[in-house]
Amino acid sequence: MMSWLFSGMLILSLLFGVLNGRMEQVSISAVNDCSNAVTLVIQLTGVMCLWSGLMRIAEESKLTDRLSTLFRPVMRLLFRDLPAGSKAAKAIVMNLTANLLGLGNAATPLGIAAMKELEKISPQKGAASNHMAMLVVLNTASLQLIPTTTAALRLASGSAAPMEILPAVWLSSAVSVLAGVVTAKLLAARFR
What we know:
Largest sheet: none
Strand content: under 5%
Shape: globular
Order of helices and strands: HHHHHHHH
Low-confidence stretches: none
Number of helices: 8
Number of strands: 0
Structural class: mainly alpha
Radius of gyration: 20 Å
């Protein structure tokens, strides 16, 4: 699906460039943006490596077990039937922690691991369970306390105060998580 979307955007860009007689600007922009993308990837790789390493240390040092205990009340509300000490619960906690720290890309492998663990305990193989749907909602809405990736992007773009967006991030991510969780719970109750 995404390949079709990106292909369509590329074709439309070329078409409008030709129709408006601006193919030179289109080609200059394409070359410049490709080099900018590589630079951005290199800048973000350092931040991702740092936080991925810290998350790995947290896992090895059993900090995840302590976080699991700390998140237990929230986990009971969101994932009612999920055993508290299960591998799935620990993977979900790690994923939520990475999202709280604003590490969207570093949270992805943790989310995949959590989804695999949820698949193992799912009563209906090959279909998304309510727990899986809730995990997708939490990952998509992504409550963030520290928007690390966004701050790194702002810093790379020359922002003097990359963390000045905190109040807006807290409000918008809290509203999106609340809306997503309420909707997921309502739909889960309706389609039992």
